[in-house]
Specification:
By secondary structure, the protein is an alpha/beta fold. The protein is built from 10 helices and 12 strands. Helix 1 packs across helix 7 and helix 8 crosses helix 10. The termini are far apart. The relative contact order is 0.12. It binds NADPH dihydro-nicotinamide-adenine-dinucleotide phosphate. NADPH dihydro-nicotinamide-adenine-dinucleotide phosphate binds next to helix 1, helix 3, strand 8 and helix 6.
Length: 392
Amino acid sequence: MESPRRVLLTGANGYIAQHVLSQLLEAGHSVRAVVRSQAKVDILKKTFGKYVDTPQLDFGVVPDITTAGAFDDVLVSAPPFDAVMHTASPFFLRPVKGEVFLEPAIKGTTEVLKSIARVAPSVKRVVITSSFAAIGSMHVDPISNPPKTYTSEDWNTVTLEEAMATENPLVTYPASKKFAEKAAWDFVKENKVNFELATLNPPAVFGPLVDPSQYTSTDQLGETCSWIYNSFVSSSLKASDPVPPTFVYAWIDVRDLARAHLLAMTVPEAANKRWFPVGGELGMQGISNILREALPEKRDTIPVGEPEKTTKPEGFYECSAPEVEKVLGLTYTSAEKSIGDLAPQLVEIEKRAVGAGIFERLYALLKTRLPQVTKSISRIVADNMTGFSLPR
Ligand code: NDP
């Protein structure tokens, strides 16, 4: 077993980060989980109750990661930190102004590195969750002849100017990941720091939630779980609805990616490199096929598409990253297991949300009609029972 480390984890309530937190704790490490609000601390305290009030888990709140010195306070610890994992960054694919992504991604990254250099000289390894979006150019045609092969050497071709001038999330989000990651590599090049840097550049991340009971509505799901729910699992769908097109086939299971974070922290050879962990290829049709097996009770509503057509179109780009298995020793979970483990959780959350919705509607109805109902009951009682009246 690895010697226990003291680790600061940012964005600890995120979909991926909760798996990182879970694996760090299970491996015996001690973690300060940093989130944006006390409400998020309270949620994590319920899920990770076993570790609360033990030396293995404490919490920090940083409401705005873009302010100067944002991490100065949370990076002071006794015992001091050995490692930092920075996962906090906006990830969704709705159109918004470029700066909504760029500001927190870039400043959040530089602020955490500046604070480490200033107040936490004990930190020896920093792991940053970058993305395949920093590598591949999502805004250009994915098909070419011959097909492009992306490796950990590549960077997307988006410029800052392009990202600031559009609301297209396939430009703004990749730009935020590229310029945040570049800022990190520049920081370690330009400053004399005590730590080594490793970045992880995962493609689409799928798989189960650590604790589905945290979710009272499917609207609270992160981006990729929400694609799966809205495209396949939602009860409002029909089998004849279209299967959405696939814009990224490369994927990884969330638990494998969490393990990659731990390996990037502990494996000596992981230092000073970008790691591009790819578990395989999985398109939206493949997801539909797996879900129809995993959720037989939903076979009539999951969009069927063309079950035979699971391969990607000719000329679609490839991803190549054999070094992750060779050097980090990471192994990968199958798509059937990954999607299969998430599927019942999505059904459970939808059921809970529908249940809560019915209760809310009943409550609202009762509240508006209550005076009328009370009056009718009073009248019936008054007409039928002499000497008795309901309290007003
Ligand atoms: P989640 O949305 O579940 O988690 C994102 C985390 O970042 C949350 O803790 C969130 O906090 C925090 N965050 C978001 N916006 C801000 C902001 N403006 N300021 C401070 N904190 C913020 O996403 P994932 O777990 O999926 O993503 C985690 C990381 O992994 C991101 O860096 C993402 O780019 C990267 N990634 C994700 C992939 C995927 O398929 N899911 C693929 C490749 C990379 P809060 O809850 O308070 O909003």
